[in-house]
Design brief:
Length: 386
């Protein structure tokens, strides 16, 4: 689908000259319903032209990892400070990893906008689609991520300035608040062996291995299938499942299930790991299926069969199809889940996620506004035999 796009072909040399010239392209799309996401079409002096310039500026920063000259486009000093700290983290990380950015392509899709009657002010919500190609130890690979921002623009003479930027940090918004009482309820249900109920085999197993009967143990976890599912559905919801506003753990659970992890259906939302879709408007799945903190408790539990995991000390001990759960504030309230889908040239995990769709993103998430100096990680190695 054609979109307004900023593309940089290569890293700048000293003096600001790039071996590959940066290009900005605007293309017309087929007409859509008024409320549907649509590409930005720039008009000279209009607010969309300022957003185009902003996207081009972001794209150059993705390559250089330095703050290029914003040329007065953005006047939000708080956000600029926040963005520079993020670039500094990433620059240090990539130097440590030996990563050289080769190419970046950033496009923006307009999700929602409003403007004053005089058009002196406008507000826009955009989705940034970022594709980066990097080189490490002679190997080249591509990572993708999506980010959403709300922009406030004000007319200044013959053009518009972006006077405020609010990144929408969806990774920090759990589906349920992990209050002490909620954690206690989940802990009672998950940290001990769950009630003995038949373990449901993934539906796909009946087709691939029809000789298996429900409740049989010794299922092999198919890491390749979990990763393949994650790559297939990282940027769009599988219509066979409910989609949540905060969808990361629902997505990771689907990946585990696609890898033949058997559900543990207890009929209790605070126990087991299961999904039975919405019924007459009632949510019909376990908290561990859809809530990062609850999945963290479930995988930490001790059980002899079914989906289970071992907590390991570091990311380099993980394998394909393993899980990382993130505590941004370091207060033991886990808010985000990812699944390992690839490895960089140094053998470190690259992960997929949803809510903020990401594919083959470096595992530590230092490129996210959700990350803080207090961030803690929980590394789960899924058992090979389930």
């Amino acid at each position: 689908m054609p979109q307004a796009r900023s593309r940089t072909g290569a890293r700048k040399r000293k003096g600001g000259q790039a071996p590959g010239k940066a290009a900005v392209r605007s293309e017309r799309m087929a007409q859509r319903p008024q409320d549907a996401p649509r590409p930005l079409k720039s008009e000279p002096g209009g607010w969309k032209a300022s957003v185009h310039r902003y996207v081009q500026w972001l794209n150059q920063a993705e390559i250089d990892r330095f703050d290029p000259d914003a040329d007065g486009i953005v006047t939000d000093l708080d956000h600029m400070s926040r963005y520079r700290r993020r670039l500094s983290r990433l620059r240090e990380q990539e130097l440590r990893r030996g990563v050289l950015p080769l190419r970046s392509e950033t496009s923006a899709e307009l999700l929602r906008m409003s403007a004053s009657e005089s058009m002196a002010e406008a507000t826009a919500m955009i989705e940034l689609k970022i594709k980066r190609t990097v080189q490490q130890l002679g190997r080249t690979y591509t990572e993708d991520r999506r980010e959403r921002e709300r922009l406030w623009l004000a007319q200044d003479g013959g053009s518009y300035r972006i006077i405020r930027i609010e990144p929408l940090v969806m990774e920090r918004r759990p589906k349920y608040s992990m209050s002490d009482s909620f954690v206690s309820q989940l802990t009672a249900g998950q940290l001990s062996e769950d009630e003995e109920k038949p373990k449901s085999m993934p539906y796909i197993n009946y087709e691939v291995m029809p000789q298996f009967k429900q409740g049989r143990t010794g299922i092999r976890y198919r890491r390749d299938l979990a990763a393949a599912y994650a790559d297939q559905w990282w940027n769009e919801p599988n219509p066979a499942y409910e989609t949540f506003e905060v969808n990361c753990t629902n997505y990771v659970s689907q990946c585990l299930f696609a890898g033949h992890a058997p559900m543990n259906y207890t009929g209790k939302r605070e126990a087991g790991w299961w999904y039975r879709e919405r019924n007459a408007g009632r949510e019909n799945w376990s908290y561990s299926w859809a809530v990062a903190g609850a999945l963290q408790l479930f995988l930490s539990g001790v059980r002899q069969s079914g989906l289970r995991a071992t907590v390991v000390d570091s990311a380099d001990q993980l394998e394909l199809g393993d899980v990382i759960i993130y505590d941004w504030s370091g207060d033991n309230r886990y808010q985000h889940s990812t699944i390992v889908t690839a490895f960089d040239a140094a053998g470190m995990p690259l992960v997929n996620a949803n809510t903020v769709p990401s594919r083959h993103r470096y595992w530590d998430y230092r490129d996210s506004y959700a990350w803080t100096e207090q961030t803690k990680y929980r590394f789960f190695h899924i058992s090979d035999e389930l």
